[in-house]
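Methods — Computational structure assignment.
A single polypeptide chain was analysed. Its primary sequence is given first, followed by the predicted tertiary structure written as C-alpha cells.
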Amino acid sequence: MSDIRTIGFIGIGNMGRPMAANLVRGGYAVVVYDLDGKRAEQVAKEIGATAAASLAEMGKQVDAVITMLPTGKEVRACLLEGEGGALANSLPKGALVIDMSSSDPVGSRATHADLAKRGGTA
C-alpha cells in the first residue's frame, strides 16, 4: 500500500503508547486497540488517537498495523486467530503489517506466510 494515512497500533503499553503518540505527532491518524477497552479509550484520548472496540473494527479503518506485543504468540492470535481472524480478514488487500514485538524469526515467517495468503503484506 503506497499511501498510508491511518495506522492501527496494537500494544499500547510502556513501549507502544509513546510510539503511537509519536505517530500522531507525525501527522498520522492512529487507531489503538487493547483488550481492555477502557484503557484503549483513555490512551486514545491522551494521545489524540481513536480507540477501536474490536480488531475487526480496527482492520476496517486502517492502511497499516503495528504490533508491539510480548511475544509472537500474541501477534499471531490478534492477527490471525483472535475474533475468528477478524483483523486479517478485515484489513484492506495489501495492508502493511509491522511486527515490533519480541517475536522469534520462525514464528514471524509463518505468520507472514499466513497473512500473505489473506492479501496482507508483513
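Note: The chain has a mean pLDDT of 88.
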